[in-house]
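Handoff note, outgoing to incoming analyst
You'll be picking up this chain. Sequence as last confirmed:
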Amino acid sequence: MRTAVLSDIIDLIGGGTPKTSKPEFWSGDIPWLSVVDFGGDGRWVDKAEKTITNLGLENSSTKLLKSGDIIISARGTVGELAQLKRPMAFNQSCYGIRARTGVDQDFLYYLLKKSVNDLRRQSHGGVFNTITRSTFDVVSISIPSIVTQKKIADILSSLDEKIELNRRMNETLEQLGQALFRYYFVDKTKRGNNIQTLPLGERIRPKRGKSLQSKNMIDGNIPVISGGLKPAGFHNKANTVAPVITISASGANAGFVSVWGEPVWSADSSYIDSTMTKYVYTYYLFLKNKQKEIYDMQTGSGQPHIYPKHIGLLEIADLSECEFNDFEQRVRPLFDMIHENKKQIDYLSNIRDLLLPKLI
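Most recent structure output, in case you need it:
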């Protein structure tokens, strides 16, 4: 076992952005990563919202990372990590990280994950709002032999592989749900069965959640849903009845729609739960309103907002409860499986996170 600082064992690679005024630099075959493309609990990244051309790569400060390289967000949502499944470029708000000789790249991913967790804990009460090159000079780490590194990486990777399998299964199940949605509510129109619409607010009145500060959270297993893409914490009681749809109310993620198979505490989010929908609208509303157009309803020049009054303006099909119920009966088993897979993901993630500081 040897000790070092992170900058001793890695090559740190800076990113960049091709000129947006040059259309020939964009919409090519090279994925161009920003922090919106990775993070959370997922280890791997293989696609990005935006792509660049070889001209864009050659005429900017961005670099092409290799498959297996690691990317970390340095600003914005700081400390998000992912490992690349294919060569990709990236912007200047991130760093690319590559292991030097004697360090296993997969082990390095978990070492960085632990280091970020440690930095977050050390900044408790302060703000962990940026990572610079000097950050890697002050993080002390212990490096076991390469054989031990590979064994540790294999143990943790086996858990991440099971998590990834469940995630992909959920993506497939949701795609099946989307296909059913198109069959019932889109293809019918194409076939000449015109479906009238009406504002959502004429059928349902979405509710605004109640803010819950961390000091008021009582430790429990009820997710607290705020402006982020994952629970802001856990409480001992809920203010919704499952199944429930939450729509983030403020911040960069205002308008992000989630569906929960368990009761949650809706904090900085609006919600629609089964007490409002008699259960027959729930997954219709989720599949319809997950579309990106909900983001167009954001208001506020500085801090974006989406509130119940905006959600009530969304259009829904003017159909009978019987027709909605037929759709829900077909799509509900898919989401039951999705919810069970999410529980398995949470369970495996907790095991991995418990093992991480013990193994590294």
